[in-house]
Fold this sequence. Notes:
Blueprint: H1 13-32, H2 34-41, H3 50-55, H4 63-84, H5 86-107, H6 119-132, H7 137-153, H8 161-182
Helix pairs in contact: 1-2, 1-4, 4-5, 4-6, 5-6, 5-8, 6-7, 6-8, 7-8
Amino acid sequence: xxxxTTHSVYPNMVTALLVALNLLAxxxxxxxxxxxxxxxxxxxxxxxxxxGLLSGPYLHAGWGHLAGNMALLGVFGTVVxxxxxxxxxxxxxxxxxxxxxxxxxxxxxxxxxxxxxxSGSIFGILxxxxxxxxxxxxxxxxxxxxxxxxLFLNAGSQISAACHVGGFATGFVIMLPLRKAFT
Length: 183
């Protein structure tokens, strides 16, 4: 079976576009007020809206939150996008963010804390990178386990462990039918 070609004149176009969209969203948050923007456009399970589910992954609660997510997107997104191509990669990113939000909602549908950030999408990309690049499995699984374990141990934090687990699981499920074609 011939492997799909993923070569492009712009090999990391979607990754760059996603970083730009996240930066633009954060600039708008700064202009309108970060807290107000997050509460208005983020995803709150107790007040479920499709708009919040779709826009929440592009909002961030602060500079550190944005920087951490964009660093991981830049590192892992570029290699995964090169392997999957722009369309599959864009679908992976968006669907992992949605899966993360839905997992958060399923775990606590009455939660009134607003969910924002690209972490669910990033964890979907991490799952894909482990499946596409077997030499990264140890690193990715160790990183994910430490990150998620710390979140569960610090259950009172405002970071959603369910979101991270949901994004990772969504990325894993998306990659199951794609893995053979791209490895």
